[in-house]
Amino acid sequence: MRLFKTLLLVVATLALTGCASVKGLKNFAECKFNFNNVSDVSVASINVQRVKSFKDLSLSDAPKIVQAFTKKNVPLNLNVNVSVRNPNDQDARLDGLDYILWIDDIEMLTGTMNKQMNIGANQTGTLTLPFSMNLLDIFKKKTASSLFDFACGLATDN
To answer: Each residue of 4-60: pLDDT tens digit?
Structure first.
């Protein structure tokens, strides 16, 4: 009988924990989302938030760009930061997220965030979505300067 009561208590605790988890996910769906900014933008390991166009590259940056084009891999890395406001009286929880990045009506890439995020009742938090892509896969017909100018625009159009 004692074992039965202990098992019953464990099952009840797990059920309550599961209900709280589902409620947290429901609350996250009711949150208000707003684009905040793009941060940590780099092309071929060059921080493009400090330059306005291809012409602004330093002498030490040029070989990195040439090497990236030679290898046919021009990596663009960035973080998209989204402000999340929880209007609920209870915490909101997100266990993971699949997402798609669209820019200028072009589907750039998809991604998955596997970390957990909790936002307290009536609080605001920032959801950071990391992106990494090869610019050449997306803009196969563009010139080096137009690709770089596009990436610089991401860094400055916050």
So the answer is: 333 333 333 333 334 456 677 788 889 999 989 989 988 888 888 777 777 777 888
Yes or no: say if 96 and 115 are a contact pair by the CB < 8 Å rule. yes
The pTM assigned to this predicted structure is: 0.67
Tell me the C-alpha distance between 156 and 83, whole Å.
18
The DSSP result for 66-110, as a single string, is: HHHHHTT--EEEEEEEEEEE--SSS-EEE--EEEEEEETTEEEEE
Whole-angstrom Cα distance, residue 31 to residue 126? 12
Cα angle at 146 between 60 and 107, to 5 degrees? Answer: 115
Q: Do 142 and 47 touch, CB atoms closer than 8 A?
A: no
As a whole number of Å, the end-to-end CA separation of the chain is 64
Stretch among 34-38, 50-54, 91-95, 154-158 having the lowest mean pLDDT? 154-158
| Phi and psi angles of residue 145, each rounded to the nearest 5 degrees, phi first | -70, -35
The pLDDT score that the predictor gives to residue 12 is 34
**What is the Cα gyration radius of the chain?**
22
